[in-house]
Amino acid sequence: MMFGRLLWSLLRGNRGRLAIALVAVISGATVISALLNVEFDIGGKLAQEFRALGPNLLIAPRGGIQTEDAGASAAALMDETTLAAVLAKVPPAAMVGSAPYLYIVARVGDAPVMVAGTELQEARELNPSWKLEGAELKGGCIVGRNVAQRMNLKPGAQFEIKYLNRASRLQVDAVLDSGSAEDDQVLAPLATVQRLAGLPGRVQFEQLRAKGDAPEISAFAGRLSSALPGYDVRPIPQATQAEANLLKRTRLLVGSMVILILVLTALCVLATMAALAMERREDVGLMKALGGSIERIVALFVAEVGVLGASGGAIGCAIGVALAQWIGERVFGASIATRWEVFPATIALMTIVAMTGALPLRLLGRVKPALILRGE
Q1: Nearest to 17 by CA among 275, 263, 265, 303
Q2: Which of 40, 67, 99, 217 is positioned for an S-S bond with 339, CB 3.0–4.6 A?
Q3: 32 closest CA partner among 328, 336, 318
Q4: In this predicted model, what pLDDT tens digit does every residue of 288-336 receive, in sequence order?
Q5: 140-171 burial by CB neighbour count: b if 16+ within 10 A, else e?
Q6: Prediction pTM value
Q7: How far apart are the first and last CA of the chain?
Q8: Residue 204 DSSP label
Q9: Which of 191, 195, 225 is nearest to 208 (CA)?
Q10: How far is CA 299 from CA 100, 287, 317, in A?
Q11: Domain locations in the chain?
């Protein structure tokens, strides 16, 4: 009971200096809480951002992808039904989507054109960064920007493609601006290209977008490879490596910021407690003269610092949740999930930092009551 009264008196009697330390602890806890909330949720948010890069996995015939031409063998291709049966068993939580592809070099008039047969809706969902003019798909085709410019094609126009001795008339549903190879291609329904090539039910490769970081994607590829003997299932290095590198650097940045903030908060508390230690010499001398043990006195001051760290950490955590939401909206355009495990972690960190900053209070143990009572 007496200990609690003394602690309350200490807190009330040094409100000015303790307020400075409390503000430092609250500020540090706010930023650390926000960073930790972002850190726990950053993998999912970056995965959403990286969806714009398109597929990150490729399923191809063992021995590599072969471009289909008049002399290619159907044995080098894959069976569409087998792929569909395996991919249908993949949980939705593990994969964003997939799209099969079959390429031919057809002719439009006298000009050769690369035609990619695919499931257009699936391919579009797999590549959210595609910009389509006339984006409603009605069973026609998507023409790359460069092809559309060369042949003066616009949404609604019709043209004929020929391959070997077969022909098919296509309607342009949309013009594609992808900034990549698709700008020089015509993307047609897979069934149409299979009919032109005389390869029903056959595809050259399948593109997928798996969820998760690089290790999770590699593990997913391993499971698919086991389910598809005779096929190669491998990550697309440009997508997976870029995502892994950015995630690693972002987490390194967050960790460095947390350490820096902890050090700065500890230094602020250290300066405040050093000044308090000088001011309390007389109080400590009087306590010791009245028979107070140094252990009891130090425990009183440590409790004061513990209350400072815990209360500042709790207040900062609550503010940090709002800051994390602001960061999520500004950076990712989505809310950051509140991770309740951040609360005890942040409070514990700030309490430890406050205790570290209270090291100058050890000097109070050296105070001699006789010198204090004599006014020296």
Answers
A1: 275
A2: 40
A3: 318
A4: 555 555 666 666 677 777 788 888 888 988 898 888 888 877 776 667 7
A5: bbbbbbebbeebebebeeebebebeeeebebe
A6: 0.59
A7: 33
A8: S
A9: 225
A10: 70, 13, 26
A11: 2-49+245-373, 56-235
